[in-house]
Write a structure and sequence with these properties.
Layout lengths: L4 E3 L3 H4 L6 E2 L7 E4 L4 E8 L2 E9 L17 E3 L7 H9 L1 E6 L1 E6 L6 E7 L5 E11 L19 E11 L10 E3 L7 H5 L6 H7 L8 E5 L19
Parallel strand pairs: 2-5, 5-11, 6-11
Antiparallel strand pairs: 1-3, 1-8, 4-5, 7-10, 8-9, 9-13, 10-11, 11-12
Length: 235
């Protein structure tokens, strides 16, 4: 699985290989993105990539409440095309999730030891993802004083990271990893006008191990509330 990742790079660097329209607030470097938090996501909008903010943890449209998203921070690539829960999203709502690294933990005596996985060359990469829009159910009953008292958004856009089997770099720490898409196939993943399941399925494979590296980092990152460059310091 992937339970934490970073997106601390400059958007100008990301734009060099994903030509997106900015539809999100100003990007703030993030070193410890956790489930239920908002993060940048690239979707297809009006025929071209657009960067916007979504909440991590997919909430299907039919879910009764938003806690359902806690179960779907990750989606297995092996079943995303066949499970009814994901069929609509994988056909019409595929997305790229920009990151510059992700974390996994190796179990030890005491606190688990975190490792950060990045490209050997550093810089941005994109996970394959799917997204949904969930509408908050209307409040009814004698204590309904009107929506003006509820500051929560009426709609939530949420996403899930697709995972695949780990490569030889990630494997010693965890048996799953995010499905990292090659730059040359970003357009194929975002192209909702042409759904070729066989092609898309071939993209969701372990990223070449020779292009990645693992770095043991500080246990400071173990706490989801911790943020900042200290999260990626060697430890």
């Amino acid at each position: 699985m992937c339970g934490r990742y970073s997106a601390a790079g400059k958007l100008s660097e990301l734009a060099k290989f994903v030509d997106f329209v900015l539809k999100a607030p100003t990007h703030i470097p993030r070193y410890n993105i956790a489930p239920r938090q908002t993060a940048p996501v690239i979707v297809s909008a009006e025929g071209r990539p657009a960067l916007k903010s979504m909440r991590w943890g997919l909430i299907p449209a039919w879910a009764e409440d938003e806690t359902f998203g806690d179960k779907l921070i990750n989606t297995r690539s092996e079943t995303v095309f066949t499970k009814p829960s994901f069929r609509g999203a994988v056909k019409q709502r595929r997305c790229l999730i920009p990151a510059d690294g992700f974390y996994e933990w190796q179990r030890q005596t005491g606190d688990a030891q975190p490792y950060r996985f990045t490209l050997q060359a550093g810089g941005w990469l994109c996970f394959a993802g799917i997204w949904e829009t969930w509408r908050r159910p209307a409040v009814t009953g004698e204590f309904d004083f009107g929506s003006s008292f509820d500051q929560r958004p009426a709609e939530l856009e949420t996403f899930s990271i697709l995972t695949t089997q780990a490569n030889d770099v990630v494997g010693p720490v965890h048996d799953r990893m995010p499905a990292i898409l090659p730059v040359c196939h970003h357009g194929d993943w975002l192209d909702h006008g042409h759904f070729d399941m066989n092609l898309l399925a071939t993209l969701l494979r372990p990223y070449p191990a020779g292009a990645m590296q693992a770095v043991q980092v500080s246990k400071w990152v173990n706490q989801a509330r911790h943020e900042g460059p200290d999260c990626i310091l060697p430890g």
